[in-house]
Write a structure and sequence with these properties.
single chain, 394 residues, alpha+beta, Ribosomal Protein S5, domain 2, Alpha-Beta Plaits, 11 helices, 13 strands, globular, disordered N terminus, binds adenosine-5'-diphosphate, binds magnesium ion
């Protein structure tokens, strides 16, 4: 099947994964599927407030070779963990039972069966080029590649947004990680050369042209390599602050507050943390819409300052940044980047930087030197061309 420019890497891995499957299970797979990681251009914590987000798929993907079984067994193997095949009985799957990495594919099978879909078992072997734990959604890539394969093999006929909901339910209820639906939607629905405008209230999507290279620009991802321990509790706390804000303002979700109503809304909120959370969500939701307008007008350079503004909001209002992420933004913009922001839930993970293509070496060097001077571990920096969403490779 045509994989399209930029997806050649996935097709290449696909052949290797199919061969790995054959060696492992003794027969060729019925099919091979790919689902990418994602990076969010703008719109942070808006997905847990029914708002807008603007992610793009990375060239990095999970690739799975899968065959159907009819005996109620699920066998899963990852080329990346060093563990052997994990064998599970679908009838015996228990949410939050802690089956390690296998909880992701198992959770997808569980969520499909919970929703009444006739999943009768599978053999799965996968490999992924999505960095894990970097805030680039290696977990959603795993869920969506599994969901797409099971959907095709069992003829379930689910749409990409429906598969994204299944992936989110697997992660929330089976693995036990609270997350919005953005990651799964991005992995399932993105298109090459585009960012995905997603309304997380009803999962309506629009592909917005975003091809930095065609405009002489580059989008860099900087993986700081850090994950601060306070992150998990703080994420829940920030979500709770958003919910408290919505309750106090009498709306179902903060997406219902526009920038025009914001000053009045803030006056009605006595708690400082709640006020900061509300101001961040309302302004970041608006920044998504501003970014979409700029992209549609072909004015990509003007997106830079909107990113940097979004970072300040995450740092000062929602307070989810950390010194390493702040340093990426400060060093990159001082070295001439058009704009930069942390991306994902914060307290570590990755940042995105928009720069002139000709400046990427200077900007990368500046970030590396700033990290070295601060005594931080060297970050991983790579360009991210907006890539294809989940698809069947063979
Ligand atoms: P992120 O989604 O930001 O990368 P998460 O903590 O949500 O970070 O998900 C990472 C987890 O997903 C890993 O700890 C592992 O359990 C699972 N995972 C991701 N990629 C793979 C892989 N290639 N093989 C096995 N498990 C993987
Ligand atoms: Mg994840």
């Amino acid at each position: 099947m045509a994989a399209g420019a930029g997806a050649g890497g996935a097709a290449g891995i696909g052949a290797g994964v199919a061969e790995g499957f054959r060696r492992l299970y003794g027969a060729p797979p019925e099919g091979v599927w790919a689902a990418p990681g994602r990076v969010n251009l703008i719109g942070e914590y808006t997905d847990v407030n029914d708002g807008f987000v603007l992610p793009l798929a990375l060239p990095h993907t999970a690739v799975a070779a899968v065959s159907r079984r009819t005996d109620g067994r699920l066998r899963v193997h990852s080329a990346d963990t060093g563990e052997g095949v994990v064998q599970l009985d679908l009838d015996a799957l228990e949410p939050r039972a802690g089956t390690g990495w296998a909880a992701y594919p198992a959770g997808v099978a569980w969520a499909l069966r919970e929703a009444g879909h006739p999943v009768t078992g599978a053999d799965l072997h996968l490999a992924s080029t999505v960095p894990t734990g970097a805030g680039l959604s290696s977990s959603a890539a795993l869920e969506i590649v599994t969901a797409l394969a099971l959907n095709d093999l069992h003829g379930l006929g689910l749409t990409a947004p429906e598969l994204a909901r299944v992936g989110q339910r697997a992660e929330n209820a089976f693995v036990g990680v609270p997350c919005g639906v953005m990651d799964q939607m991005a992995s399932a629905c993105c298109a090459e050369g585009h960012a995905l405008h997603l309304d997380t209230r009803d999962l309506t999507t629009r592909h917005v042209p975003f091809d930095p290279a065609a405009h002489g620009l580059a989008l860099l991802v900087v993986d700081t390599g850090v994950k601060h321990a306070l992150g998990d509790g703080a994420y829940a706390e920030r979500r709770a602050a958003c919910e408290a804000g919505a309750r106090a303002l009498g709306v179902r979700a903060l997406r219902e507050i526009g920038t025009v109503q914001l000053p009045d809304a803030l006056r009605r909120l006595p708690d400082r943390a709640v006020r900061g959370a509300v101001r961040h969500v309302v302004t970041d939701n608006h920044r998504v819409e501003r970014t979409v307008a700029l992209l549609e007008a072909g004015d990509l350079r003007a997106v830079g300052p909107v990113l940097t503004e979004g970072h300040a909001s995450l740092r000062d209002d929602l307070r989810v940044s950390c010194p390493e992420l702040d340093l990426v933004v400060a060093a990159a913009t001082a070295a001439g980047a058009l704009g930069a922001r942390m991306t994902g839930g914060g307290f570590g993970g990755s940042a995105v930087v928009l720069a002139e293509a000709g400046d990427t070496d200077t900007v990368t060097k500046a970030v590396r030197e700033a990290f070295a001077a601060a005594g931080y571990t060297a970050p991983r920096v790579f360009p991210a061309a907006p890539s294809a969403g989940a698809r069947r490779l063979a």
